[in-house]
Amino acid sequence: MKEKNIIIPDHEVAISTKDMAVYYGEKKALHETRLSFPKYRITALIGASGSAKSTFLRSLNRMNDKVARVTGEINFEGININSSKVNVNELRRRIGMVFQQPNPFAKSIYDNITYALKYQGIKDKQTLDQIVEESLRGAALWDEVKDNLDKSALALSGGQQQRLCIARAIAVKPEILLLDEPASALDPISTAKLEETLMKLRENYTMIMVTHNMQQAARTSDYTAFFHLGEVYEYDHTSNIFQNPQVELTLNYVEGRFG
Amino acid sequence: MENDVQKQLTSPSKATRENIRGKALTFIIASLIIVLTVAVIGFIAIKGITTFTKDGVNLWDFLTKSNWNPGSIKDGKPEVGAAPMILGSFLVTLLAAVIATPFSLAIGIYMSEYASKKTNKLLRPVLELFTGVPSVVYGFLGLVIIVPMMRTIFGGTGFGILPGAIVLFVMIFPTITSMVVDALTAVPVSYRQAALALGATQWQSIYKIVLRAATPGILTAVIFGMARAFGEALAVQMVIGNSVLMPTSLVSPTATLTSQLTSQIGNTIMGSIQNDALWSLALVLLIMSLFFNLLVKMIARKRKI
Q: Which residues form the ABC transporter domain (chain A) (predicted)?
């Protein structure tokens, strides 16, 4: 077996890291990573708690600003976005994020989706209506809520709230969606529905998803990266990771010997 | 043996007796406080109503007339028109809240959203220091600084509603600010993260999401500040002018319910109409503070839904 196995996908790359490391104070939480994420694919980040996969994910859209120190390069659209010159608000519009706990605003379903659009200057009611419908359809929530768009988002079930958060994220038309354990707070039925949604969204979005659920990674993702104690040990096609891992740590993890 | 166990199981022990005593003691003290509260309200109510029942003052006259001279009788009725004081109390309170709210919001937002932990460590004690200063000191500062300043700017004596409101503003804004900070920090971090992850700037996340979610808490803070301002006596008395006149401008001498009470209650004889009239002012104050309390409760209930 090898010590590490990190491939470079033979596919158009949406975002990649080069020697990206993360420090919390003096402590190095994530060692240098060099990963390329293919466009219009789902990549799963797996690994035990404390393996720094969420830290990695949050660095990609600069949500770690002021929280941690990120060194190295993150390349997106031909520039290094890990630079103080980058407009992080514009960046985050292009690289959206869905969190572990559904976090809709205490507003109506409609207002949740239009919040970001309004401060982008979109005021035309017809355009807003159209984007709301598109986004909710994209997140497979339209049929469930189309008659109650004025209802508080907090009245939705957990699974619906999470799909609303996805709708809210795709309403601003990002290129990449970062998903931080999006199903961990959901029951199995809601999870299945969420996964189905993600599979559909794959046609138009590049997705990177942290997950603790290995079946979920195996079911939904095209590529998988295995993190362990702040280091990436293996990155390959998902089928290889689960059926034919090259690194012993990966093998032990996917076979459930630790985690 | 069997009997011993049964006896122990069925008879009270030292610990259970102690428990009963503890419960009884705390219950008695709690009841005492309730009785005391009811007694105070009852006493003020009875004394305050006497003006209308015994002395024959018309309630409507009391609330709307502006001649305050309880000793003298005009057209067969004592002159007990409290309108200047009621108006004075409301004006200083409202004005103080209007000045204090933007300050408190700005400081609160800075402290909860932008300031580092270090800065907060400095700002918190400064705010607490403000609340710890005795009101007489604020009143004195108002008297020697604000009142002469008003005199220079607006002419006249310099006493009146505006200096009163300024002194009250300094007194209430620390309280409002620390409650605003609490309300803002109670807004879940996930709301801010969600907004930031959508590409919102921090300012956009604050004024569209965080402030909106914290609105009930902020309202509560402002009402608390107003309740404090409404009830403050000493500091206001030192800068308001203490003459029962309808305020003709923000810098004309007038009086508030509290300033009139503190300055006059020692000069009247219990049972006289002068004294009864002051109790009526106290009753108005009490009703107002109950109203402020009720308002806070209503907002709190609305927040739960």
A: 15-254
